[in-house]
Specification:
13 strands, about 375 residues
Length: about 375
């Protein structure tokens, strides 16, 4: 008698869309991710699932919920299904990490299984954890059909062992799309067979991965607070560009006429390989202490259609969340590429022309890094 265990990578989350290091960090889920979870449940409509398991991360639980609801089953949370921890890199954008830790980043991108990230899990340990939870689920559901929602690195590390390979085989098992499905069959004797890996045929084209920038430092933005004195020329130049594009949406439309009047705004520069290619204008909401306002997002023209506004939004979310905010607000942008942010993420319209996004998962408030 064999037990079928379907491993599922979680749906699209903030870290995926915005190119951020969210391993064990509990980021929010995108609207696209919610739709992926529903399509995943459709895939299992004719399969007699007997148990649903999930990592205790929010993005995994949200992925498992539609399937469990349709099957009338509880979602059984297992910490062993968690992603590995990426240590001190948790929460930061990929580009920022590449800028701050160039030597460690080079190792991480070339041979990640030999990484030296401070505080991060060794990949062989992650593989052992994956094998252990597989054995437990198979033992608890002998002869059944199990769906287990987990994370890409844990799944890939585990597969190196299941395939009888060294951990360096990790490089040859490409990370699947969000909600990609891997099937492992386990015999009562404890032997296993990998039937297929990272199948995402259930996803329609609009829900598949797009504008994926990988891990290269020249395709992921690094962010830093602008210095109003030392970088006043750059600030003025970008503000002039924003005004020409009518891209300023702060409550005071005449703000920032010079670099000396930026208070109470925070200016962040976005860089590719140390070249400034964008800017964020942020401020706290004077009437809503739990909210931050995105006054403007700016990018060089050629970068606008390539998904980089998602990276800027991710930095704005992180900026406010680290300061204890629970919501982010912005006006509907004039730029069509920025308007896509409103549909990709779960923004809700407000009466005053703003859109609001919850930037913490239910049950948490403030910074959790």
């Amino acid at each position: 008698m064999k037990t079928q265990v379907y491993f599922v990578r979680h749906c699209e989350s903030e870290g995926n869309a915005c190119r951020r290091n969210h391993a064990q960090f509990d980021g929010i889920v995108t609207r696209k991710g919610i739709l992926q979870s529903e399509v995943l449940a459709d895939r299992f409509q004719s399969i007699a699932v007997t148990a649903v398991y999930s990592s205790d991360s929010y993005r995994a639980r949200m992925t498992a919920a539609p399937l469990a609801r349709r099957k009338g089953l509880p979602v059984q949370l297992r910490m062993l299904l968690r992603e590995y921890t990426i240590g001190t890199w948790e929460g930061y954008s990929l580009g920022t990490i590449a800028c701050r830790y160039p030597d460690l980043w080079k190792i991480w991108t070339a041979t990640p299984w030999t990484h030296q990230i401070p505080g991060a899990d060794p990949f062989p340990t992650v593989a052992e954890r994956g094998i252990e939870i597989l054995r437990r689920m198979a033992h608890e559901n002998q002869g059944g059909v199990v769906v287990a929602v987990t994370h890409s690195c844990l799944l890939t590390c585990m597969l190196t062992t299941l395939l009888g390979q060294d951990i360096s085989y990790y490089e040859r098992i490409k990370s699947g799309d969000n909600t990609a499905v891997t099937l492992v069959e386990v015999e009562d004797s404890g032997t296993w067979n990998v039937v297929f890996i990272n199948d995402s045929s259930h996803l329609p084209p609009n829900l598949r991965r797009t504008q994926y920038t990988g891990r290269s430092a020249d395709t992921n933005l690094a962010f830093s607070l602008a210095d109003p004195q030392a970088e006043s020329g750059k600030i003025k130049a970008w503000l002039s560009r924003l005004k020409e594009e009518n891209a300023l949406s702060a409550q005071n439309p005449a703000f920032l006429s010079s670099a000396e009047t930026i208070e109470p705004y925070q200016i962040l520069f976005a860089r590719l390989l140390n070249r400034v290619c964008g800017m964020l204008v942020l401020k706290e909401d004077p009437y809503r202490p739990d909210c931050g306002i995105v006054a403007a997002l700016a990018l060089e023209e050629e970068l606008k259609p390539q998904g980089y506004f998602l990276q800027e939004l991710g930095e704005a979310i992180d900026f406010f969340r680290r300061r204890g905010k629970r919501f982010l607000r912005l006006r509907e942008p004039a730029c069509p590429f920025q308007r896509e942010l409103l549909t990709r993420f779960c923004f809700e319209p407000e009466d005053n022309g703003y859109y609001r996004l919850a930037i913490t998962v239910p049950g948490t408030e403030g910074p959790v890094y």
